[in-house]
Structures are given as C-alpha cells and as structure tokens.
Amino acid sequence: MEPLHYKHWPKDVPRTITLPKTSLYYNLDVSAARYPEKTAISYYGSRLSYARIKSEVDTLAGYLQNECGVKKGDRVLLFMQNSPQFVIAYYAVLRADAVLVPSNPMNLTEELRHYIRDAGVSVAICGAELCHRLEPLIGTDGFNHAIVADYGTYITEPTDLPIPDMVQMTSPDKEISGFIKWEKALSVPRQPGSHLSNHEDLAAIIYTSGTTGEPKGCMHTHETLMENTVFAGYWQGISCEDIMLSVVPFFHVTGMQVVMNGSIYVGAELVIMTRWDRELALQLIQRHQVTNWTNIPTMVIDLFASPNLTSESLKSLRYIGGGGAAMPEAVAKRLYELSGLSFVEGYGLTETAAPTHSNHLSRPKPQCLGIPIFNTEAQIIEPITLEPLGPNQNGEIVVRGPQIFKGYWNKPQATKESFLEIGGRTFFRTGDLGYYDEEGYFFIVDRLKRMINASGFKVWPAEVEALMYNHPDIQEACIISSNDAYRGETVKAVVVLKEASRQNKDMAQNIINWCKERMAAYKYPRIIEFVDELPKSGSGKVQWRLLQIKENTD
User: Fold this and answer.
1) Which residues contact 255 (CB under 8 A, 6 or more apart)?
2) 3-state secondary structure of 316
3) Would you state the pLDDT for residue 211?
4) In this predicted model, which residue has the larger pLDDT, 373 or 485?
5) pLDDT classification of 339: cutoffs 50, 70, 90
6) Structure pTM?
7) Which of 14, 146, 219, 259 has its CB surrounded by the most CB atoms within 10 Å?
8) CA–CA separation, 44 and 322 (whole Å)
9) For residue 64, what is the domain's CATH number?
10) How many Cβ atoms from other residues are within 10 Å of residue 425's Cβ?
11) Is residue 258 part of a domain?
C-alpha cells in the first residue's frame, strides 16, 4: 500500500535518491575541483575559496597523521565554535581516515573527560577560548595532543561588522605540553597518505545523553551521514549559487548536516556566525543576499525584537526553517506576513543525523514534523504491544532509513533496546510520542523518554542529577522541566538537603552557582525547590513524573 504522504509529495522532487558510495571528504574534493576560486566561506567580511579550504584540509590531515600519529579509525575530538577552522578541522579528520567526536562548546572539563575516556580520544582540535577546559585532561586516558585555533586569524580584511569577543581571543602565550597552535600545524606542508575511507567506514561518534545519566556516542558512517548531506540539495533546491546563513551550531547534527555538509556537497557559500547576534544576522542577510537560513525558533523570536527588522531585511531569503523546538503559531504568522515565507519545520535526532521528517516549502503544516523524507519510512506503534497504529492514534514514532545510526559506541545493550522488528524490517525507536494525520503528516505530542528541551538544546535529567550528587550539601535531587517564556522549557531541581545544611538561607543560589561552574550553560538548573523528601515508588525509585505533573499543574 502506498504511504499516505505520497499523495502530497512535492512536485519535481524525487521520492527516492541514490546516495554516493564515497566518503564525505570526497564531496569537498569534488567541489574544490569544480569551483576552486568560488567563495566557500564568508567570515566577518573575509572570504575563503574552495581551493584554499581543500589545501588547508589536506595539510592539517597530514599533520594529524605525521605528527600526532592519527591512524585510520582513531577518534579526534572537535571542540570549537562555528568558524572556518571548524569546517577545515572537520574535513581534515575525515581526510586522515579518522573518526570525528564533535563536542558542544558549552561542555566543561568533567563532561569532556567522559568523551575522551569513552571514545578513546587521542587528539583534540579546539578554539582558543576553550583550551583551558582541555588543559587539565592532557596526558590522561591516552589524550596527548591538542591543536588550538584563534578564530580571528581568518578575518584578514578590514570590516565594519561587529566581531564577538571570543573571535578576537588568542590562545595562551605560555607553552602547554601537548598543545600546538593552528598556524604552526599548518606552517609546514605535510602530505597525508592515500585516502582510504569508504562509505561503510565510521565517520563520527556524535554524543547524545541518555536516561542512564551518561552521554552515549551515536556511531555514524560516511553513508549514514551522506543521506542528509545530499537531502538539502534536493529538498530545498540548493545549488552552488546559494548562500547559507550558518548560525546553528556545526557540532549539532542539523548545523553539521543540513547547513555545513549540505553546502559543501553542492558548492554553496557558508556565511558563518560564531555567535548569534540578531543585528549582525540582519546585516549579513542583506549584505550577502542570503538565500537560505536554517535556525531554531528562538532566533526568529529574537529577530522580531529588533527595531531594524523590516520586510526589506529578509527580501533575499527564499527558505527559512529549522527544528529543535516547535515554532509558535503567532511567530510563524508574523514571519509570513513580513517575508511571504512559511517557516519550514522538520524532525530528527542525533541517532538519525538530522531529519527523518520535514515539511516542504510548497505545502508546510504549522507545528508539524512533516512527512518522511527520501528513502525513509516511519510508523506509529503502541509503545507496549508494539502494534502499528493508524491515522490520528497516539503512539511511539519509529523510523527506518539510510540515515539511521549503527548503534551506541561500546553500549550493545542500549543499541539492542533501541531497535525492533516490524514485518521483518528493522526500525529505530525514537522515544517520541506522536501521530500522523489522514494525509501522512506527522506530529509530536509528548516524549516517551525523559528529556528537557531548552531552546532546542536537549537536557537529560539523569545526567544533571548525577553531577549534582557531588555537591556536599545535597542529599537527593530530582530534575524536572519548568515552563519558560523564552526558552520554552528550563531546568528545575527539586532538592533534599542534608540535615546540617537546611538552615542556610543562601543555599539555593549556592547550588545554582556550583552547578554553573560544572555544567554547560543550557544544562544547569535555573530554579531550585527544597523539599523534605522526594516521592518514591515501592521499589525506592524516585517518582519524577509526580513532581513533573505537580509542576505542570501549579
């Protein structure tokens, strides 16, 4: 039986696509051969050509192999903001036949320690503003080399654009054992060995947190990443003439796939912002005549607060969309009135390397995940009986397609629990509850997994709780979500203090400050509520759902 959504498939877009049986690096190789002098990256008024990007990628790959001892399959941590260096480092790791381990720049030392230890990272490439977080880890767990980049070195032309402080930061002058500056690593040309990776080889281990409290590494091959690298060219109609505002983070699968890799694949131009700035975004859209902008809804909301926003500001755009959180209907309506563009929403996970579903500009539905994309099948199942359900019946979203990851790194049991068989075919269990309507469009209604979505950043309560139990005054802690007008959801900690600490009136702020020093900015609790005891089940498990229900109804 033909899927319902095929009746509404966008015209002039194929239902399936044939994926290249090559590595992701080969995409850059091809674009640099086709468009050597074309601008690949615009960065605060300076431009880098495709030929230059490829040359520096190859040189850095040679350094990784010859000076850092990186071999095929070795893991390399990428700990940077959006920048030309991120793009170059990303493709250099792939050119060296190694495996990328991208990390959120908000992560602190203890969070990074888990990545390094779990993935067996031996080398890191980081931004100057972040190297102090890696310094305590050098020489531990086999981690021996770090290349440190000053983002501002790629701003070579005079500019009137506002440059963020972090872009102007420089790496420490002091010698740090195991650390080397980016420029020095590129100063002596080193030819890498033959490129050996093929489509079946591991390309990246991208971490997502799990309900066990420890982040889990999603294993993606060149092939699983290739699906959504190629996707944007067909779905958004992107060509080498398009210009992409690149502000969603490249360490995250949406920015990595739909924006960075998708643009490199077709030879488009990346206009990179290292930090979100609504006024700068307006300047860049107009100055570069940006055609495509993938974002998160909070950026659009912030843009509407600008006194400089007019319909003329967005005139060059022909596509605007994103995911990570639902776009409020009122904001989408205002965007359409101002620009004539519908905000195109999509859906995906780290395990699926960005979208499994997307709306299309020709027929989007508001606050909707969209339809399954090329080569992808999705169903709704009853979470307990696993029986497939029909239209408008709530159940768990399960998907299958070439973008599905190969499992969790070193976690065979978690991998096994994430897949199921339906009619002899293997599906990935997303853990999200939703339904599809009579036209085959999918909608999300709740989460089967315990997770907080703060401005598109995913926060896993068990991970935050595990860190909070290291606080000397905390006896017990339970993390729940609290409604927030701007972030959508924010993190709240319900805490039982140790007896000796209960009279301290400053304890709430003390705990917040303590967490802030040890957790990424989007993770630490903004709200602390003290209770005498946490509700527990007969087996002694904390009943977090009761606390969440109370929070939602108060």
Assistant:
1) 82, 246, 248, 249, 294
2) coil
3) 45
4) 373
5) very high
6) 0.86
7) 259
8) 23
9) 3.40.50.980
10) 10
11) no
Average pLDDT score over residue span 299-318 = 92
Burial class of residue 437, CB neighbours in 10 A (0-12, 13-18, 19+): middle
In angstroms, the CA 301 to CA 317 distance is 17
* Residue 326 covered by a domain: no
Residue with tokens 């399959």: 73
State the residue for tokens 């409290």.
Answer: 213
AA letter at 460: W
Q: Please state which of the ranges 43-47, 52-56, 206-210 shows the lowest mean pLDDT.
A: 206-210
E strands of 354-422, at which residues? 354-358, 371-372, 377-381, 395-400, 419-422
Distance CA(159)–CA(405), nearest Å, equals 42
Reported as a single tens digit per residue, the pLDDT across 119-171 is 999 999 999 999 999 999 999 999 999 999 999 999 999 999 999 999 999 99
Domain interval for residue 189: 35-197
**Residues 6+ positions from 92 with CB-CB distance below 8 Å:** 56, 57, 58, 60, 61, 64
Please, what is the average pLDDT of the chain? 93
Residues contacting 416, CB < 8 A, separation 6+: none
- Cα–Cα distance measured from residue 246 to residue 259, given in angstroms and rounded to the nearest whole number: 7
pLDDT for residue 45 is more than 60? yes
Rounded to an integer, what distance in angstroms lies between the CA atom of residue 177 and that of residue 174?
10
Q: How many domains does the chain have?
A: 2
Residue 448 has a pLDDT of: 66
CA atoms within 13 A on the CB side of 360: 23
**What's the confidence (pLDDT) of residue 470?**
87
Residue 545, in any domain of the structure: yes
> Is 297 among the domain residues?
no
What pLDDT, on the 0 to 100 scale, is given for residue 297?
A: 85
Q: Kindly state the helix (H) or strand (E) to which residue 48 belongs, with its residue range.
A: strand 46-49
User: What is the arithmetic mean of pLDDT over 538-553?
Assistant: 79
Which value, in Å, is the radius of gyration of the alpha carbons in the chain? Answer: 23
Task: Give dist(CA 515, CA 325) in Å, integer.
Answer: 25
> Does 210 score more than 80 pLDDT?
no
For the chain, the distance separating the N- and C-terminal CA atoms, rounded to the nearest angstrom, is 47
Summarised one tens digit per residue, pLDDT across range 502-515 is 999 899 999 999 99
Q: Which three-class secondary structure state does DSSP give residue 90?
A: helix
d(CA 225, CA 104) in angstroms, rounded, equals: 19
Phi, psi (deg, nearest 5) at residue 269: -105, 135
Calculate ∠ Cα 188-194-199, nearest 5°. Answer: 125
β-pairing verdict for 39-43 and 46-49: antiparallel
Asked whether residue 307 carries a pLDDT value surpassing 50, the answer given is yes
What is the b/e burial string over 490-524, where b = at least 16 CB atoms within 10 angstroms of the residue's CB? bbbbbbbbeeebeeeeebbeebbebbeebbbebbb
Between CA 77 and CA 80, with CA 79 as vertex, the angle to 5 degrees is 145
**Which of 150, 180, 197 marks a domain boundary?**
197
Among 137, 171, 197, identify where a domain stops. 197
Q: How wide is the angle at C-alpha 273 spanned by C-alphas 220 and 91, nearest 5°?
A: 35
